[in-house]
Amino acid sequence: MRPIVYGLLASFFFAFTFVLNRAMDLSGGHWIWSASLRYLFMVPFLFLIVAKRKNLGVLFSHMRKHPRAWLVWSFIGFVLFYAPLSFAAAYGPGWLIAGTWQVTIIAGSLLVPLFYESIDTPHGPVKIRGRLPVKGLLLSCVILLGVAVMQIEHARGISQAELFLGILPVVLAAFAYPLGNRKMMEVCGKEIDAYQRVLGMTLASLPFWLLLAGYGWVMEGPPGGGQIVQSILVAVTSGIIATVLFFAATDMVRGDTHRLAAVEATQSGEVLFAVLGEMLLLSAPMPALWSLLGMLLVVLGMILHSLYSHGPETKKVSKNVSEKVT
Fold this sequence. Notes:
Elements: H1 2-26, H2 31-52, H3 56-65, H4 67-88, H5 94-101, H6 103-110, E1 116-121, E2 124-129, H7 134-155, H8 160-188, H9 194-220, H10 225-252, H11 257-265, H12 269-281, H13 289-309, H14 312-325
Pfam family, one: EmrE
Protein name: Multidrug resistance efflux transporter family protein
InterPro entries: EmrE
C-alpha cells in the first residue's frame, strides 16, 4: 500500500501545477515563463538536497557514463511533458487540464511492451518483455470515459481550435512523462535514488529551459514578480515534493508492470485536488453536472486499477509467466 499512498500524496502536490499555472495565465503571465522557471528554480533546491545526502559524486559519475540516455529521456520525460502542459493552461481551467492529463494512465499501459519485467524463478530473476495488460487497459478505459464526459460541458463554449490546443498538448505530455520516467529507471537501475534522478533529469534538460527562457525574454519580456513567486511554489510543491514522491513510488514497484500501472493511476486524484484548489484560490465556480460525473468515473477507474493490481489475478499471471520461463 505504501506506493499507492506515495502516489496519492504526489497527486496532491502535482495539482498545484494545474492551479498555479492557470492562475499565472489569468494574471497575464506567459506559459513560456511558467514552464521554464519551474525547472530553473528546481536546480538549487535539488542540488542542496542531493549534496546534503552526499550523493552528487555518484550522480555525476553516472551521467558521464550515460550522457546520451540522460539527455534523450530527460528531454522526453521533462521537456515534452511540462512545456505542452504549460501551453495548454492558456486554453482551459486547471481541473480540465488535470482531467485530460489522466490519459497518462492509459499511456502507461500501452507502453508496457517497450519494457522488460523482472520475474523471480528458481534459477534467479529473469527479464522478459512486458505483455500488454489487457484487463488493466480495460479498467483504464473507465478513466478515459470520465475524461471524455468531463470535456462535454466545456467543449460547448469554445471553438474547435481552442479545444484541440487545450487537449492535444496534454495528450502528448501524457505519453512523454511515463516513457521518460520508465526509461530513466531502466538506465539508472538501483544505483540512483529518486532525489538523484530528479536532479539529473533537471540538469540534463536545463539547456532547453535556458533556451526557452531566452526566447521568452526576447519575445515577451521578463516575467512579473507574481509569476516568479508562483513559479517558485510550483517548483517546490510539484517539481520537487510531488516528483520525488512519484519517482519513489515507481521505484518501489520497479519490474512489476501491473503495480506500476496502479501507481500511475493514483494521479487521477489530481482532478479532485485541482477542482478544490481552483474553487478555494481562484474563486472558480463548481464544475457542471457532466463534469462532476466525469470526475466520478475518473476516480472510480483509479480505485478499480488499484484493486486489480493488488488482486490474486495479477499474482497468478506472474506465477504462470515464472513457470513458463523455468
